[in-house]
Amino acid sequence: MARSILPVRMLRRGAPTKATGGGGYTFADKVAAGFLAQMLMRKFPLEPEFGPIAEVHFETRESGHVLDDLLLVLKHGHQETRCAVSVKSNRQLTKDGFNSEFVQDAWGQWQGAAGSNFDPATDFVGLIVGVIDDRTLHQWRELQKQATSTRSVALVVFTNRHISRHCSSSTASDLGSDHG
Q1: Residue 15 — very low, low, confident or very high, per pLDDT cuts 50/70/90?
Q2: pTM of the entire predicted model
């Protein structure tokens, strides 16, 4: 019988079935895998004018990104567009608005907090959620339809009117809700 040279207290315990059976894959891993597949197939995750994904970066807080789950770098010719993405498996968007923590983080990203080199003229912020209720999903799809069938200026005016109707001020903390 072979004996271990490690003391008994240092021997590893068996991994739980969930970990060895694939249960360790998280929602964020699946989202990242989808973007990596799009990158390999040269698909456009956003609009074609931004180009396909050229790079995918993970956990980018140390690079100064507040929305740090994923950073997608898209390239179209010499033009580079970055999309800082927050990936959340829980409810972040409801009929009452976005989760307040996401709103604060998105605002921080937009304003270049933590030393990020985010450029509001060319870059995007993104939120990918795993859970959304039917009513909110329907409203979101209606907004998407309006966005694709409306000139950009008219959509901004509509959005500003909608925000001002629902918020007493235009601060970032007022745009979110406190659910999560």
Answers
A1: very low
A2: 0.67
